[in-house]
Amino acid sequence: MRSGIAAAIGLWLALVGAPTVAAPARIATQKHEVRVEPVATGLRAPWSLALLPGGDILVTEKAGALRILRGGREPAAPVAGVPQVAARGQGGLLDVVAHPQFEQNRLVYLSYSAAGSAGGDAIGTEVARGRLDCSAEQCTLRGTEVIFRQQPKLGTAFHFGSRLVWARDGSLFVTLGDRGHQDLAQALDNHIGKVVRIDESGAPAAGNPFLDRTDARPEVFSYGNRNVQGAALHPLTGKLWSHEHGPRGGDELNIIEAGRNYGWPVITFGRTYDTNQPIGEGTERQDVVKAVRTWVPSVAPSGLAFYDGDAFPGWRGSLFLGTLREQRLIRLTLDRERVTDEERIEGFGRIRTVRVDARGHVYVLSETDGALYRLTPVR
Prior knowledge:
This protein has helices at 2-16, 102-105; strands at 26-28, 33-40, 46-51, 57-61, 66-69, 93-98, 107-115, 123-134, 139-149, 164-166, 172-176, 194-198, 220-223, 228-233, 240-244, 251-256, 293-295, 301-307, 318-323, 328-335, 338-346, 351-356, 362-366, 371-377. The chain is mainly beta. The strands form six sheets. It has a five-stranded antiparallel β-sheet with strand order 1-2-24-23-22, with no helix packed on it. It has a four-stranded antiparallel β-sheet with strand order 6-7-8-9, with no helix packed on it. It has a four-stranded antiparallel β-sheet with strand order 10-11-12-13, with no helix packed on it.
């Protein structure tokens, strides 16, 4: 009965949108007094955003709409040319990033859940790209093409991962969840529970750790990842940092290294949902990368951004992540690759994505409010 009620509530929220809870106009944090400015409201289940050169902002909505905020105005008609999305459960239109040379090539990359060509219930994460072309009335992705398909597609509707991060060499990291088939995360012959690395056209990136192995997919960069919904490149080291959801605890902050095993489901702090029993063999093993930070109980992290801007000097060197369960913005203070402090900032509901612009302003995308907020300093 309880699962039926939960499903009914989820369907109602998908149809009418989550209730609006406005963020406060000002927030006092440990280091700064912060002004909270609504950039856009009325978004329906927003998932991610891309800050484009020139000030335009792209926002994804899970049901399949890509919105563009032009000149600070509210979103109007959705961007045309978006690939067909299978919006089921946790799936839908998810991450969006611009190409590093966007000002020259206008390329936009999207991750989303999609059905297979043969139809049926099986779906999986795909990545597509298209050239953004805007007139005064309409923006369109032209020449949209699928460059990557997660294999295999599966019948479950959760744990898609789907964050996109550009590496310094121009390759693209794609995070891929375990889709509820956790045992596949330890096998290298699939894309389930992996971080993959591809080039800008979708081919396996040069230097990937398993390129020469016949028992592995050439795109695989790391494995044993449960559901990475936050990833960002360290501004000084260029290393990929990520966090992932654990069950009933065991959320992890990791530094993703080539060819390494991140443990799921054999090494984890997570517990089963039904009996609350420990999962796997234990919490440490020599060949498994130890997490930088683990949360027990779970905070359900989503979105990740390093801060090295000028607007908030006291935040330099921090790492921001949103949370879904905690419904707070978390700021981690770092000493190189070690977390030394944690601040939890309330007021935004369920946070899907955090970004930082060139001026050092922080953008927070709230699923609860259906709103995008910009954090600026109170002078």
